Amino acid sequence: MKTLWMTLKFLLFFTLLTGVIYPLLITGIGWTIFPRQSGGSLISKKGQYAGSILIGQEFHDKRYFFSRPSAVSYNPLPSGASNFSVTSKELAKLVRERQLKFTVENGLDSLISVPPDMLFASGSGLDPHISPSSALLQLERVARVRQFNKEQRQKILVLIDSLTESPQFICLGEPRINVLLLNLETDKIQ
Amino acid sequence: MNALDVSQVLLYLVLLIILTPVLGGYMHKVFSGERHFMLPVLGWLEKFIFRVTAANPEQGMGWKTYTWSLLLFNLGGFIVLFLLQLTQNLLPLNPAHLPGVSWHLALNTAVSFITNTNWQSYAGETTLSYLVQMIGLTVQNFLSAATGIAVMLALVRGIVGRSSLLGNFWADITRIILYVLLPLSVILAVVLNAEGVIQNFSQPVTVLTLEGGKQVLPMGPVASQEAIKQLGTNGGGYFNVNSAHPFENPTPLTNFLEMLAILLIPAALTYTYGKMSGSLKQGYTLFTCMMIVFLAGLLISLYAEYHMVSPAGKGLVLEGKELRFGNTGSVLWTVATTVASNGSVNGMIDSMSPLTGMTAMFNIMLGEVVFGGVGSGLYGMLLFVFLTVFIAGLMVGRTPEYLGKKIEAFEVRMALTGVLVPGVMILLFAAIASVTRPGLEGLNNSGPHGLSEILYAFSSAAGNNGSAFAGLNANTVFYNLTLAVTMLFGRFGVIIPVMAIAGSMAVKKVTPPSVGTFRTDNLLFIILLTGVILIVGGLTFFPALSLGPLAEHFLMHSAVTF
Hints:
A: 7 helices; B: mainly alpha; two-stranded antiparallel sheet; 65% helix; globular
């Protein structure tokens, strides 16, 4: 009976400490020092939220650079992956389709090897990045659809270069480029 | 793999090795009641809690009282968490108006979190309210981790102590949380938050995408939960895809820190153990043995992951992986999270190479003793130490002893029980699931990979790991209930024998070491111990693994698909 009482008292205490005070403390610190990050690193465009810098979006319009394939079509409710095994027939079919689609849409030689990030869906279904080589392979198509001249096309090239994120602290992660940012900036090119 | 990949792995190992004595030494001070630098900061809170609860931290408990307190404490946590989920629609902090959780899912999740498994049959962002995530899940993240360390402390005190008393359970969990888990979590949460992990109580945000579509972004207090989820080897994600989600793990730096947090405390506890047993070499022996098995698994997985044959040919396979972590960052995480009973994922293990999946599964099947869960890894490892000492004793024909105390029939029986219970649960339920309709209906892949999905689920539950071949749809009555039973046996089926050993060891007389004493702190012992772990853990599952991932590995190389 005494142990039961102790249990209740300690449960209540730790619920308050680790379930209420602790999250509120972190929220307090967050909103004081890093309000943007705490709120989801949102970007606004014309006074409206246009997305989060961390969450990828799906692009169909050929004026835009395309994101990686996604098992949930970039709908975050809920996030998800295909979970296909490497020996799955369905995955094999999808990969062939994506290979074909990517080369045709970008007017590439059918023998070109498409970067793996454009062939395989991400873990979250919300991956905001593509590899710099995937961006470069889409460059001609984007420039063509937008009827860009040489100088404007050059500007996209500079954009890709400047937006490419190197591995953090030299050795962490892969070189990558944020698709949403790239498309937002491409829209600004005159 | 290039030089940068190698340096990431090396950096990880070096930091882990450096931090082990630092944190381990600090934890020893905390657990033994010595003065330490957090006392002036939080000592008042400790005094306060002991005063209001009228608990006497000096009052030692025998093994039965200690175990009883622990079980009741966990039962209490279960009831609270279960009821919170069922009634979340009536409670505040539910801005997305999520309905109450179904009884079998709530049962599974409550068991999952009190057992430090944190298996996810649920998709956090569409199932649980902020309130449940905070005062339900976050709290159990702390409490189940503290429970694991408390059991370890009781066992070690039983082994090295001179009285039948194993310490005070309430004092132990209070100190573990106040001085170890909470400060580390605050630091990690703030850093994660700074890098972009969200922390708020806002409504889900609707954004107008660039192409004019709508995207609803889930919100919530994520950073605070993420920190303890990694540090306490819990692993239950705020979101469905766990640490693959950009709001849980936005950058390569957060990825690295979250990975480091997985093994930090389990590794450091080996040093704490060395201090407690009065011989650092005993601690380093266990650390070395763990490191050997960890590195072996890591090398196999890295090799396998860079030599896959996929529908796209021989190049890199990024299915289920996030670009910002890369291949190496995903593999390192997978191995760390499975040796450590953490179970968080940053890439989908279901889609990784068959041998990576097998290594992950094998790590869990070994009983989560390679670093293992916080506390539970070390007490599980000590069970294997007993078995090794016993087997070595049989070979040379002497009564086996460990740290001066005799290991007798009772301890060996209990140690074997603790080692075998999870294995029995895995094979029994996996067998049932692979021949019944409700078991097979949940599969996402066919062929040998389907068997792997089932085998992985029950291994994960029995090892209290929580990671998954996530294609398996486990949110069914069949899986929710069978997995819940497996988790309970996997946790308490080990804790109770461990506590019994602690009780019986505590009252044994200490004989001073002689020339004939079998040493447990040298290379020979490391080799024996590693052998016992691999043979006992490995051979039990070899037939099952051959039919699942091994078969798939060879079929993959013959380009067979299912």
